[in-house]
Amino acid sequence: MGALYLAALTTATGCMLLLDWRYRLYFWHRPLPALIVTVVGVAFLLAWDFVGIALGIFLRGDSPIATGIVLAPELPLEEPVFLTFLVICTMVVFTGVTRLLATASARRSR
Q1: For the chain, N or C: smaller number of CB within 10 Å?
Q2: Is 12 within a domain?
Q3: DSSP symbols for 56-109
Q4: Is residue 104 in a domain?
Q5: pTM exceeds 0.85, yes or no
Q6: Rounded CA separation 17/6 (Å)
Q7: Is 77 a domain residue?
Q8: Is 8 helix (H, G, I), strand (E, B) or coil?
Q9: How many alpha carbons fall within 13 Å on the CB side of residue 17?
């Protein structure tokens, strides 16, 4: 049961990528820019985490559903996986909403 959270994050990321693939919103629309945005976004959020850890704001709690693997002090393995999911989810939702608004605007102007 120690990898349940990691499995859930991986599954959720896979589902988000399936939505992306179906509607060609993010990675399957423009792969290189999507990869750059994802890497930069995760790097920024990890830097934010490291600052929070250094200031004693972010602490790793023990959980029976987490792996217990720590990449750095107070930084569990699940954190970069979660941040990757967060960036992908945000960008898929953003590009989806942008497309819906553009479609609605085009229909109104006809």
Answers
A1: C
A2: yes
A3: T---PPP-TTS---EEETTEETHHHHHHHHHHHHHHHHHHHHHHHHHHHHHHHT
A4: no
A5: yes
A6: 16
A7: yes
A8: helix
A9: 13
Which pLDDT belongs to residue 33? 97
Q: Any idea what DSSP says for residue 30?
A: S
Q: What percent of the chain has pLDDT over 90?
A: 82
- Distance from C-alpha of 56 to C-alpha of 96, rounded to nearest angstrom: 37
Q: Token pair of 13, please? A: 């990321």
Task: Domain of residue 85: give its range.
Answer: 4-93
Q: What is the pLDDT of residues 2-46, one digit of tens each?
A: 799 999 999 999 999 999 999 999 999 999 999 999 999 999 999
Domain count, the chain: 1
CB of 60 closer than 8 Å to CB of 74: yes
Beta bridge partners of 70: 76
